[in-house]
Amino acid sequence: MYYLLAWVAYCGYIYIDNIVNGRGVQPYVWSNLMASFVAFTFCFFVLYPKFLNRKLILLFIVGLGIAEGLFIGTRWLVEEVIYIPLIGHGNYNPGTAIMYYISDNWWKALQPILLSFICWAFLETFNRERENEQLRQDKIQAELAFLKSQINPHFLYNTLNYIYSMAYPVSDRLADTIIKLSNLMRYMLADNANTLVDLQKEVDYLNNYIDIYRMRFEDHFFVDFKVTGDVGHAQIASLMLIPFVENAFKHGVMDDAQRPVRINLKANAQQLTFTVSNKINRNQKDHSSGIGMANIRRRLDLIYPGKYDLLIANNGDTYKSTLSIKLAQ
User: Fold this and answer.
1) What Cα–Cα distance (Å) separates residue 288 from each residue in 3, 74, 311?
2) Which of these, 256, 181, 243, lies nearest to 212 by C-alpha position?
3) What residue ranges are annotated as transmembrane (predicted)?
4) What is the C-alpha to C-alpha distance for residues 259 and 151, in angstroms, rounded to an integer?
5) Which residues 6+ apart lie within 8 Å of 89 measured at CB?
């Protein structure tokens, strides 16, 4: 829509300029508009967003030459090929050298090229400001939601401590499960959702989470969790990895010893790669993992903009997610 408005405004400018200067709407005005349309469209949709926006200066300079060529070539095609059989003459005398035609038209191409840049730059600035505002609003909403989620867990954490004291004399296994659950609650309460924590804490959280499931399902729970690299000197946003494990446990098969849920974490101070794969549970009625993945991507966009890759593979039998993050040192 913005592109169409800009082009209509440009056509209006050309029309008014010719009327004011007493030239009228002559055939060469239409050829100029058609050539300008081609150059303007190329610059607006290809040259500036593909090359200038990515700082590919050499390719951008080549693109400027292409824009000039498109303008000159289109105008020559209309005026010197199409117009001659239609109106009996072209815009230039017969036999005009091609170099003269180029030198007489290259500066005219600058008008649509510059106008398209102004329109593109305005639209780009507007879109970036709108995206930044949306990110600010999303961050505020995420922080408010996290603060709201802290109200009831405090009560649960204190209650778990009491239940642990009651369960300890009865069953060591039950008491151990309660203390692990208590540690999960402590981690969730102690660390803000958007602050960095030691990666080792995140690993401990995952281990406690897996252990609770293992105690629950006993011999019908098969998970292979491997950690490699130096996790002691890396940091990550808290609770960033657990959604992938939750998704695997919710939608995957956990009781197949031949195909366990595989969780692999490889990290150093600069880079983290986290992979979770599971056999898909075909008896699972709820397959709504799309919303969860969308929420994960939104959080990654907020905390690690331009610093992560998230790949999802689903072949109908196996679901695999691979997250790579460039970590802050």
Assistant:
1) 38, 52, 18
2) 181
3) 28-49, 56-78
4) 39
5) 83
Contact between 67 and 39 (Cβ < 8 Å) = yes
Delineate the domains of the chain, giving CATH numbers in brackets.
Answer: 2-146 (no CATH), 218-326 (3.30.565.10)
Give φ, ψ of 153 to 5 degrees: -55, -30
Question: Which tokens hold the place of 211?
Answer: 């252990």
pTM of the model: 0.53
User: Please, what is the Cα angle at 184 between 271 and 151, to 5 degrees?
Assistant: 110
pLDDT at 21: 65
Q: Which residues pair with 277 in a beta bridge?
A: 262, 320
**Which residues are paired to 273 by β-bridges?**
266, 324
d(CA 240, CA 193): 8
Under 8 Å between Cβ of 268 and 230: yes
Strand partners, 288: none
Helices (H), ranges, the chain? 2-20, 27-42, 57-77, 83-87, 98-149, 151-167, 172-190, 199-217, 242-251, 290-303
Say if residue 249's pLDDT is above 60.
yes
Confidence bin at 325 (pLDDT 50/70/90): very high
